[in-house]
Amino acid sequence: MAIHNNLLALGVLAFIGLNYLILKIYRHRSHVNRLRKQGVCITPGWSWVTGHLLVFARYARKFPRDITMAIVMNEMCLEFPKTETFIVDLWPFMNVAIMTYNAEAGLLVTSKYNLPKSPTTLDTVKAIAGGPNILTMNGSDWKYWRSLLNPGFSAASLVDHTSFIVDSVNVFCRALEEKAEKGIILLDDYAVKLTFDVIMKVVMDADINYQTSDHPFALALANTEAAPSVFEARKFNPLRPIREWYNGYKMQNFVTKSVKKRFEEMKLERLVSSNKKRTSQAKSVVGMTLDSYFNEMSSKQSLEGVELAPGFLNVVAYQTRMFLLAGNDTTSSTIVFIYNTIARNPEVAAQLRQEHETVFGPDVSTIGAQLKAKPALLNDCRYTLAVIKETLRLYPPVAINMRAGLPNVSIPTLDGDKVPTEGCSVMVQPYAMQINPRIWVRPKEFLPERWLVSSDHELYPPPNAYRPFDIGPRACIGQQLTLNEMRIVVIMTMRRFDIKPAYDEFDELARKNLGLLGKLKRGIVGEGIKTFDGDRAYQTVKTGTHPSDSYPCRIELLKG
């Protein structure tokens, strides 16, 4: 009897659950159907049962399995040249989405309307950041924290970090020298360690020397990835939440301990100082944030009574973790793609080397000292910056900018219609926008000169269509740091090394080292597509958009 009752209860629960699921599907698909009936442009092949999941899968099969979602979405964008804005329904993996690669619509989304960040944004990065941060916050919370964090990324603050960046790049160069002409290396791994050293110094004033030895925070971050995209197998791994929690605990513990220690140091400095100000200059992002906190709290109470509020500490830790991801991940991947574009365009390498010799002279060994003494020399390397900008155009490190729609807010399509955003996510597509053939001349060609020509030249970049760092009030807070760091890397390496991709050798070694199961799998499903637009170094679905297989390459030392 008891077994019968238990089975009956399970049956009732299953029935309720099934009906709830059906109701949820119906409500969601009804919303999409209403938009469709209103004449909103929608991706063909929509179904009440699967939405566009099967359609997306069909597009995805045209590309390597690990390619970034942005490139798959660009393929869908090509179907809508007359509107440049359309609906995609990938529920339950994401809310119904308005995709746009129209520059004017994108400007409305991120500037005029400044639509709030979607809750999905926090879901995507929560495993890494731990909680709300300036990437995910909205309203007054975002304004408060953005104003608090801005000083750490000011022009004056970044100049102070030039010497450390130069020293870090010198370590990077020594590592490349050690590996030169000795075999294949995975360049992305080296770039990640370089940029992590830099961002740890800028954000936390920590010298961790990750390029020469492992560090627990860096390892925890490396073992934690952003939420998987639509069809990644790891999305369904039951052990993923446990691993994310463990790595998140290690990261939060490290950051909170470091912030508490810095807080106590700064408090002591103020207590022993007669004017209640620091005896040393806080240069890190965390240091400047705590400095503002001291100023705010000591205006309300005595300095002796100022304590680090647990809520404030947690959010500082979330912000710090987000900066350590963003400042490391996007910069490192772009550095590697810069080398890849240079390798594919030898004439670019020649022009870079000529510019560097003109600005810094023939002796490569003096570049670091010159940059330390006069950081403004970076501004004399206009072609170097143009190469970086053009790389960011073709390889934007952020795949999608997602915002939440609002009632009574619509965005225009190219042909003049309006798309209501209420109940939808709005996804601005930087990659598709930055190669839109309607507004970019020779959009898929690597042409650094487009960033050097006058505004009346046909190559001159169209307004509001270049957004690797986003546009508007929420543009990337660290974009100048990233550009400075990348310029220093290119300037200090171009006349010392010749870096060439070695994918053919890498793939051949991988085939030779295949085990029995690997050979069986390859025999059944095939090797799969390995290039995009003829390039083996395509952007993948890692946390950022890193080069496939970490960019295997060979390093050659240059004479002179």
Automatic annotation (TrEMBL):
<comment type="similarity">
    <text>Belongs to the cytochrome P450 family.</text>
</comment>
<dbReference type="InterPro" id="IPR001128">
    <property type="entry name" value="Cyt_P450"/>
</dbReference>
<keyword id="KW-1133">Transmembrane helix</keyword>
<dbReference type="GO" id="GO:0020037">
    <property type="term" value="F:heme binding"/>
</dbReference>
<dbReference type="Pfam" id="PF00067">
    <property type="entry name" value="p450"/>
</dbReference>
<dbReference type="InterPro" id="IPR050196">
    <property type="entry name" value="Cytochrome_P450_Monoox"/>
</dbReference>
<dbReference type="InterPro" id="IPR002401">
    <property type="entry name" value="Cyt_P450_E_grp-I"/>
</dbReference>
<dbReference type="GO" id="GO:0004497">
    <property type="term" value="F:monooxygenase activity"/>
</dbReference>
<dbReference type="GO" id="GO:0005506">
    <property type="term" value="F:iron ion binding"/>
</dbReference>
<feature type="binding site" description="axial binding residue">
    <location>
        <position position="476"/>
    </location>
    <ligand>
        <name>heme</name>
    </ligand>
</feature>
<protein>
    <recommendedName>
        <fullName>Cytochrome P450</fullName>
    </recommendedName>
</protein>
<keyword id="KW-0349">Heme</keyword>
<keyword id="KW-0812">Transmembrane</keyword>
<keyword id="KW-0472">Membrane</keyword>
<dbReference type="GO" id="GO:0016705">
    <property type="term" value="F:oxidoreductase activity, acting on paired donors, with incorporation or reduction of molecular oxygen"/>
</dbReference>
<keyword id="KW-0503">Monooxygenase</keyword>
<keyword id="KW-0560">Oxidoreductase</keyword>
<dbReference type="InterPro" id="IPR036396">
    <property type="entry name" value="Cyt_P450_sf"/>
</dbReference>
<keyword id="KW-0408">Iron</keyword>
<keyword id="KW-0479">Metal-binding</keyword>
<feature type="transmembrane region" description="Helical">
    <location>
        <begin position="6"/>
        <end position="26"/>
    </location>
</feature>
